[in-house]
Amino acid sequence: MTHLRIREVDVHKEFLDPAAQGQVVDAVRKVAEQAPFFQPDTPYGKPMSVRMTAAGRFGWFSDRCGYRYVEQHPQGMAWPAIPDPVLAIWDAVTGLERRPECCLINYYGSDAKMGMHQDRDEASFDWPVVSVSLGDDALFRIGNTTRGGKTESVWLQSGDVVVMGGAARLIYHGVDRVRDGSSTLLPKGGRINLTLRVVE
Ligand SMILES: O=C(O)CCC(=O)C(=O)O
Ligand SMILES: [Fe+2]
Predict the structure, then answer these.
(1) Domains contained in the chain, number
(2) Using CA positions, which residue lies closest to atom 9 of ligand 1?
(3) Interface predicted TM-score of the whole assembly (ipTM), two decimals
(4) Which of 112, 125, 91 has its CA nearest to residue 37?
(5) Whose C-alpha lies nearest to ligand 1, atom 3?
(6) Whole domain around residue 134: which residue ranges?
(7) What DSSP assignment string belongs to 125-166?
């Protein structure tokens, strides 16, 4: 396990060993059986390339009305609980008493990406956002706390955990691309990213 700090963003390389990664993937699969992946629309009306679901009291949702947290899956059910192995990652990496109320689950196929954005739909920015990468490698871009300017990129690999807190909490970030076939963790390929968020 090595640790990088890129513009106040903490990148814990190889935080999860392969066995732990498998345990989290099994837990994510159970969540997705209860709360199937869906493809949200951006507020501009274009579908996102990433497919999503969530666990916890809140899930993140987007459509023409904007971005927001919602207490129900688009099909009407409550989101499943955040799995214990996922909460254990939050505990280990943050050491906080407070726990996240949302685990957003993003699935990236080989053509998916995520544009530069801030995570700013939460009530408070005092809590970190913790991100867990599983499956194929992703080129993660880190910018500034305002849009534009110079950026730095890092390849995130399966088992890496990123923490955006403190001065990095409102930093712009995105995923430029996923390296198809770079991991064998997910039988059908692609990448899963979990982001843990304190919402209220
Ligand atoms: O997939 C990633 O590594 C980042 C995901 C992200 O930024 C988000 O869901 O807000
Ligand atoms: Fe984000």
Answers:
(1) 1
(2) 195
(3) 0.99
(4) 112
(5) 193
(6) 2-197
(7) SSS-EEEEEEES-EEEEE--SSSSS--EEEEE-TT-EEEE-G
| pLDDT reading at 1 higher than 90 | no
The domain that holds 184 is classified in CATH as: 2.60.120.590
Predicted confidence at residue 45, as pLDDT, reads 87
Arithmetic mean of pLDDT, 91-119:
97
Ligand 1 surroundings by CB, under 6 angstroms: 104, 106, 114, 119, 131, 138, 140, 156, 173, 175, 193, 195
Q: Which residue has the higher pLDDT, 178 or 45?
A: 178
With vertex at residue 55, the alpha carbon angle to CA 11 and CA 34, rounded to the nearest 5 degrees, is 135
Q: Which atom of ligand 1 is nearest to the CA of 195?
A: 9
Ligand 1 atom closest to 60 (CA): 9
Ligand 1 atom with the shortest distance to the CA of 119: 10
